[in-house]
């Protein structure tokens, strides 16, 4: 973005690939849930939904690691230091693989106990445990896949991650129903079909990715240099963690909060657990554009600061807020108008459809508030202000979301759990806006100009 250019065009150029990648990343799980809900039933969907927050908790560590690694790789790539790119990638991959193997080997021993502690309804506990055991087998490959795609964006490659997600989704789309029904001589695996299909998709995608990267001579292609770098360089790891830990901590707190919320939801029975799974899936798609806009605001803000044009941060912030208002609001309205049909893609039980629709109407509009807060936090992070936006989000999750969800669920039932989300998102937006206007804008910009 040049000093005199408008941020609108730059925003739109970034948003397309980001939103499409985010959508495809979640589409595989959505397809599995649709297949399970339609081809097996509500109990199967509930069993899968019961394990999702635990899986997200594991993934949160890798997302933080990927954030730090991609920033350092971007710096090394900009300096044309391919050796350092490989060294950073090797260190991050080594940590991801060791962590993934540890989770895969030891996680299964505690899965049933953990699910029971979270109050997973007895009628789905066995299926949820079986599903979790298969998912845990795929954790090393999943960690590697998520980390590699994040690091590729660090070298300016957004197309290959998108293509790899297309491969992953396409394989799952074909294999999942075949495993549910036992087509083409395959075993009928029931509730675990989606997990086995995801494992197969990961193996195919990682193989395709390795061949594709080598053919292109990609900076992150698996070659002898990368293999030699596949060990933990503690100095590099400290640098990666210094950047990635704040983001990782926030993601971990969000994951733990979702685990706590799920334990409240489980107390209302397996129908409520199934409705939780559907609502979170629909909500994630509505929030993807808001997340992408926040990421884009952070990227454009960092570029403006690096180019010595900190005066453009106000324009970037306004563009992000307006785009969030237009795009996210449009998606919220469209989804609410079509909510019954959308929920019907996942489940067939009329009572669960009615429950999920009511919950969706309570929470969906608050995605607009979350998107606004994301833009403000993203711009502040671009200037290096990380701790305050992160602390605000974490404090609201711990001090607002969890207490409100607990108290209201005891007073008015399952609706109270979902009312906690708009209350929390509103609190985050209010505090981020106050800090942005009263503290950050007065201090940070003056230091940069």
UniProtKB/TrEMBL annotation:
It is found in: Cell membrane. Keywords: Cell membrane, Membrane, Transmembrane, Transmembrane helix, Transport. One of its GO terms (molecular function) is antiporter activity. The keyword Transmembrane applies. One of its GO terms (cellular component) is plasma membrane. It is a multi-pass membrane protein. It comes from Sorangium cellulosum. Its main location: membrane. InterPro entries: MATE_fam, MdtK-like, Membrane_Transporter-Flippase. It holds the Pfam family MatE. The chain crosses the membrane at residues 50-73, 85-110, 130-150, 162-180, 186-211, 243-265, 285-309, 321-347, 359-379, 386-406, 418-436. This is Multidrug transporter MatE. It comes from the Bacteria. The lineage of its organism: Bacteria, Pseudomonadati, Myxococcota, Polyangia, Polyangiales.
